[in-house]
């Protein structure tokens, strides 16, 4: 038995209109991927009986397994059972065990079993029930054209449990261990997708074809994913992951689902250090990213959002003369801001940013996208001037992430120059 | 010309693996729905050239319009242009105008144009370019089997702009006025979907069947959408929108895509007032939401992120005795915080929040989800204690939004009690 070909068929008017964003198919795909099964294709259609029947017929001739999601509810636009019966050329019959489930389900909740609900027990003759312990809609299984068809409920929590407890065990029974997929991910900051691809082409020209390389932009991070289905998958992925680690160096934030803010809070916490943040153009975003992490209070006491010059002086003791002579967006001002924040908060490390987020407020000398960052400790303050001429939103997110990354690099004692400093430095 | 038959084809390994939840197709569907075009079917597949070619060929024989999303990037797994060329039996050629776009795009960002990026200019011969003003990947149009095929980028912001500015105008040119759909939306804060539906059932029982009512949770806002395709659509939607306005009152933030932060900045700006924010449990999120809005500097000078008790005293002059006697999460502390922020910043209005975001740090007396908010001006400070026992992320977002909403209600001189105060008040 080899890895089966799997397709998904989703039905729902709300999915087609865009009123609901489909997260069910991602959930199914991830659950299947964990046991080495990949979804090849998915089709999403509105609740229309004819179209549903035609899709089921067509897909059943293309693959080994079809998972249908949605259309098991009590209302008139729920028609999966009916469509499957027509496609399989079977009668729709009231299923005694499904009725029993409905009776029990209503009894537990003190509901009266309505005629609408009874419709949920009308299933294609000869199908096998799949238990739904969370909802009224039972799942069911039927084979058409040698394709195994599983019908699942649209409610995410019910679907998730039915997949994990009932369907996945049925599907994996037949897959041998040595055919399972190995997946490993890393999160990268400061290198674009094309830069990473170029580096690999140049520095790792013998990259094995069996290891599929995938990129996902989770702005401003890039997720790099290594997938292998070879018999040597585990060993091979580990080896090439290591080579990739050496290639990308400290641009790697961490493994799997690592996030910059979580990594920074963890490092600070481990080293018993505290961070303070003085923000102008990011307006509280850096502080907000740090405090999103549970446990931030161990490493963060104070943030200063000093949007005006007056407040830079009042809150952070930036000399009025500095602001007059060099302006708010200057090396001198961010140094004074970070010194002020460090002195007042008595934190170990500090970040200060001041820039032109745009879309207005730029000048020839200080255009939209220009930003000064100062970071470090009172005895060792670094500065850089970057140029990020994008949307206001992107600018604020990139500057926040770069600031956190610069603190991360201090904490891991990195000696590398990050690519975003060599590539995106503002040319005066 | 009647309403065209539309299908979507999405390509991306990350979509199939479940690493990315597809929100692009919902966005496309909503944009099309606003001009009365419905999507009939969508197919999602991994980045595989053969499968892509086959899907394009098959779909082009089934509908009038095919929108392909994704696969326009610079890497090897981006193969939409190549697949379309094969399906159309055309050569892949370097497009001079696409090259020009790439050159300009790189020049503006001080990037070197790499060979990988040049691949983005290799397009099917005879295709028409569709401008992408935000990214490197140009869109393009080609007809196969009398089906109009539009290729669009996977980056959501780029897709959204290309759809709105380029593709929608092309598609609507041929639809007569009397077949156009009328859609009107409002954004609501503080009332749930089921509460709104219940209010409508009770207070507006004669709601016409021709006006479809849709809800979309854009947490923490709810978007309420009225859609009509009747010949009286325009008049009818306007009338019932007005009735809904009277029913939901000041819970309505604004029309169409109104956002709380934008509305608050606009109102402050119109009234020449300034806001200051003192945050504990929201950790900079409220300030960050205000400063996301371009022009925030007119209405916002300073924010204080005082995460520790020491910093509440040092930055906001909260009396140490107040903190000792009542604790950080108390009415007395938030009043002192907002007074401190107003005094130091000399702003007209202020917000102060202090609560238990969780998941740890709660006690029997002050459980996770409890939050004190103080808001108003120095001569009129209001307070409320809410209970939002959800995830840390939801808690922070809800508290930020409620805070901004309370300021909005002062600015519009609202005399209503918001539902979230009557329903979610903490019971001591």
Give a brief description.
The structure is a homodimer of 428-residue chains. By secondary structure, the first copy, chain A, is an alpha/beta fold.
Main attributes of the structure:
homodimer, 428 residues, alpha/beta, Molybdenum Cofactor Biosythetic Enzyme, Chain A, Alpha-Beta Plaits, Maf protein, 3 domains, six-stranded mixed sheet, five-stranded mixed sheet, 40% helix, elongated
How would you summarize the topology of this molecule?
Two copies of one chain form a homodimer.
Chain A (H helix, E strand, L loop, with lengths): L5 E6 L1 H5 L6 H10 L5 E7 L3 H12 L4 E5 L10 H9 L3 E3 L1 H13 L6 H4 L3 E3 L3 E3 L8 E6 L2 E6 L3 H17 L9 E8 L3 H11 L7 E8 L2 E8 L4 H16 L3 E4 L4 H11 L4 E5 L5 H7 L8 E7 L2 H8 L3 H7 L4 H15 L3 E7 L14 E8 L2 E8 L4 H20 L7 H6 L4
Parallel strand pairs in A: 1-2, 1-3, 3-8, 13-14, 13-15
Antiparallel strand pairs in A: 4-5, 6-7, 7-8, 9-11, 9-12, 10-11, 15-16, 16-17
What does this structure look like?
The structure is a homodimer. Chain A contains 16 helices and 17 strands. The first copy, chain A, starts with 5 loop residues before the first strand and ends with a helix. The mean pLDDT of chain A is about 95. With about 425 residues, the first copy, chain A, is of the alpha/beta class. In chain A, the strands form 4 sheets. Chain A has a 6-stranded mixed sheet with strand order 2-1-3-8-7-6, with helices on both faces. The first copy, chain A, is elongated and about 85 Å long. The longest helix of chain A is centred in the C-terminal third of the chain and has 20 residues, at about 390-410. Chain A has 3 domains: about 5-175, MoaB/Mog-like domain (Molybdenum Cofactor Biosythetic Enzyme, Chain A), CATH 3.40.980.10; about 180-255, Alpha-Beta Plaits (2-Layer Sandwich), CATH 3.30.70.2860; about 260-425, CinA-like (Maf protein). In chain A, about 40% of the residues lie in helices and about 25% in strands. In chain A, a hairpin with a 2-residue loop joins strand 16 and strand 17 (about 380-385). At the A-B interface, helix 2, strand 2, helix 8, strand 10 and helix 11 of A face helix 1, helix 2, strand 2, helix 6 and strand 10 of B. Strand 2 of chain A pairs antiparallel with strand 2 of chain B, so a sheet runs across the interface.
């Amino acid at each position: 038995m080899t890895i089966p070909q799997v397709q998904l068929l989703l039905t729902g008017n709300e999915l087609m209109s865009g009123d609901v964003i489909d997260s069910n198919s991602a959930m199914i795909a991830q659950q299947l991927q964990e046991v080495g099964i990949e979804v090849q294709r998915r089709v999403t259609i509105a609740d229309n009986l004819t179209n549903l029947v035609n899709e089921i017929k067509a897909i059943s001739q293309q693959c080994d397994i079809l998972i249908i999601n949605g259309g098991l509810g009590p209302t008139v636009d729920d028609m999966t059972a009916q469509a499957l019966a027509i496609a399989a050329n079977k009668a729709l019959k009231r299923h005694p065990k499904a009725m029993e489930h409905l009776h029990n389900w209503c009894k537990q909740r003190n509901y009266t079993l309505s005629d609408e609900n009874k419709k949920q027990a009308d299933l294609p003759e000869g199908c096998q029930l799949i238990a739904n312990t969370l909802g009224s809609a039972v799942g069911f299984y039927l084979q058409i054209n040698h394709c195994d068809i599983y019908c699942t409920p649209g409610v995410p929590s019910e679907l998730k449990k039915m997949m994990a407890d009932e369907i996945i065990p049925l599907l994996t029974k037949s897959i041998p261990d040595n055919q399972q997929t190995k997946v490993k991910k890393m999160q990268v900051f400061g290198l674009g997708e094309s830069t990473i691809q170029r580096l690999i082409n140049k520095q790792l020209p013998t990259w094995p074809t069996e290891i599929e390389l995938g990129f996902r932009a989770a702005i401003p991070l890039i997720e790099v994913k290594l997938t292998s289905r070879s018999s040597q998958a585990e060993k091979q992925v580990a080896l090439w992951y290591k080579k990739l680690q050496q290639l990308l160096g400290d641009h790697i934030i961490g493994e799997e689902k690592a996030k910059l803010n979580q990594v920074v809070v963890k490092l600070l916490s481990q080293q018993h250090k505290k961070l303070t943040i003085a923000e102008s153009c990011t307006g509280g975003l850096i502080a907000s990213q740090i405090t999103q992490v549970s446990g931030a209070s161990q490493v963060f006491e104070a943030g200063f959002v000093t949007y005006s010059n007056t407040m830079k002086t009042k809150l952070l003791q930036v000399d009025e003369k500095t602001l007059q002579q060099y302006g708010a967006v200057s090396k001198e001002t961010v140094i004074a801001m970070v010194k002020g924040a460090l002195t007042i908060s008595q934190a170990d490390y500090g970040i200060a940013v001041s820039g032109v987020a745009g879309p207005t407020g730029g000048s020839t000398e200080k255009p939209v996208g220009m930003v000064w960052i100062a970071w470090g400790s009172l005895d060792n303050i670094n500065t850089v001037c970057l140029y990020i001429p994008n949307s206001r939103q992107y600018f604020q997110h990139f500057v926040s992430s770069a600031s956190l990354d610069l603190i991360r690099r201090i904490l891991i004692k990195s000696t590398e120059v990050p690519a975003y400093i060599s590539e995106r430095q503002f040319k005066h």
